[in-house]
Design brief:
The protein folds into 2 domains: about 5-95; about 105-145, no CATH class. It is mainly α. It has 4 helices and no strands.
């Protein structure tokens, strides 16, 4: 019996492998070669509508499918980075654990956190302008939301 996890794992492996190969110089060269062959065959087919339709249809199909494959690998990579960042925050003494899993917050909550860190950056720049170091770890200002 095939489980949902097995089907998803197959797709993830397929998407990852396809994305890896699609970004290689040989794959680009193959795509250029296909276009050159298509261009060279233009006079043979009288630059007909069918001749044009072949390249248009082919590129549309490839583009449509690649969007899903690339999105899958992008989602997986982003999720892995988020988990790694969460672990760094969790393991760093003095770090604000409230920053864990920020990507799940609503826009207003993210804006509030961003405003707190913008205020820290502005204060650090003011200290630097006075000649003071900006290497401390001050507390983030209170959240106004």
């Amino acid at each position: 019996m095939t489980t949902r996890h097995d089907r998803n794992a197959w797709y993830s492996r397929f998407a990852k492998t396809t994305a890896r190969y699609s970004g290689r110089p040989r794959t680009f060269s193959l795509a250029v070669a296909v276009i050159v062959v298509w261009l060279v065959t233009g006079p043979l087919f009288g630059f007909s509508d069918t001749w044009q339709l072949v390249i248009n249809t082919g590129t549309t199909i490839v583009t449509f499918l690649m969007v899903f494959l690339i999105q899958n690998t992008q989602n997986r990579d982003t999720e892995a980075i988020q988990v790694k960042l969460d672990e760094l925050i969790r393991a760093t003494q003095g770090a604000h654990n409230a920053l864990l899993n920020l990507e799940e917050l609503e826009e207003e909550e993210l804006d509030a956190f961003r405003a707190r860190y913008l205020a820290l950056a502005a204060a650090a720049r003011m200290r630097m302008d006075r000649g003071d170091p900006d290497t401390d770890t001050p507390e983030a200002p209170e959240n106004k939301v």
